[in-house]
Structure formats: structure tokens, C-alpha cells
Design brief:
Blueprint (H helix, E strand, L loop, with lengths): L1 E14 L5 E15 L2 E7 L10 E7 L2 E7 L3 E6 L4 E8 L2 E17 L2 E12 L2 E14 L8
Antiparallel strand pairs: 1-2, 1-10, 2-3, 3-4, 4-5, 5-6, 6-7, 7-8, 8-9, 9-10
């Protein structure tokens, strides 16, 4: 199964000694089911997120969510509630290893869409660098185009 969907993303990033940065984005994307509880959600980033030219893929497989970005910024982040994973974060300025400690994870997708919520902390050199919360809502595209 593969279909066009509308993806609503609300992200909050809070870094040490700064005010939270909140981003809201509504975009078109694709939802693909590869197995009973195995979904892939993909979309293109925009200037609004600061990742223009980057393709984001979110793979939901049971209790694990993997986020992969390819383009100018390349990264792979693995989220499992209560677990810490190491990831490489590649930017045009160089690469760095980061720790991703998932505090809360909800991934409830069906063929009609659903919700993904991820609350995680970012660690650089084993020190807390920031906290991110993403709320993603996926709905079926009813034929209207979001492109202008």
C-alpha cells in the first residue's frame, strides 16, 4: 500500500540557555505500508525547517522509529522509549556523534494515517545539549494540492 498524505508537524526544540524554538509545518508526503506494523512516511523539507533540499523518511517498525534525512544534511536517528542510541549528524560544516535518549515515543499509524509523538534529549560528548518534542499527524490527502 502506498498513498499520498498530508503531514502536519509541530516541533519544539529547547537548547541549554535559550528560549524554545517552535516550528509548525504542513506538507504533502507519502505513506507506505510494508508489513503489518511496518510503515514508511516520507516528505521533502522546506526553507521553514532550515533543511531545504533534504528528504526526510520516518520508518515506524513496532516499538522503534528511525528517522533518516538525506540531502544537504544527512543523519539517521533511532528512537526507542527508554533507550539511548548513538547517531552521526552530518552537516555541510562537518560531522559529529550525538546521543539520542528517547523519553517518550508513540507511533500509531494505519493505512488511513495516524500520529507519531517523540520526546527525546540530545547529548553531545555525553552532556545534555537540548530536548526535542515532535508531534506528527498524518491524514489522507483528499485530492487537494498543498503546492501553490
Amino acid at each position: 500500500m502506498e498513498k499520498q498524505v498530508v503531514i502536519s508537524i509541530k516541533g519544539m526544540q529547547k537548547y541549554v540557555d535559550t528560549d524554545p524554538d517552535v516550528i509548525e509545518l504542513v506538507t504533502e508526503g507519502r505513506l507506505i505500508r510494508r508489513g503489518k506494523d511496518d510503515y514508511i512516511l516520507s516528505y521533502r523539507e522546506s526553507e521553514l525547517t532550515g533543511l531545504d533540499g533534504t528528504e526526510t523518511t520516518i520508518h515506524v517498525e513496532g516499538e522503534q522509529v528511525t528517522l533518516v534525512r538525506t540531502g544537504e544534511f544527512n543523519t539517521q536517528m533511532v528512537f526507542q522509549e527508554g533507550r539511548r542510541h548513538l547517531s552521526m549528524y552530518n552537516t555541510p560544516y562537518g560531522a559529529m556523534a550525538i546521543g539520542v535518549n528517547t523519553r517518550h515515543l508513540l507511533a500509531d499509524l494505519t493505512d488511513q494515517g495516524g500520529d507519531i509523538e517523540i520526546d527525546y534529549a540530545i547529548e553531545v560528548d555525553h552532556a545534555l545539549a537540548g530536548r526535542n518534542v515532535f508531534q506528527i499527524k498524518v491524514t489522507e490527502n483528499q485530492g487537494e494540492s498543498l503546492r501553490q
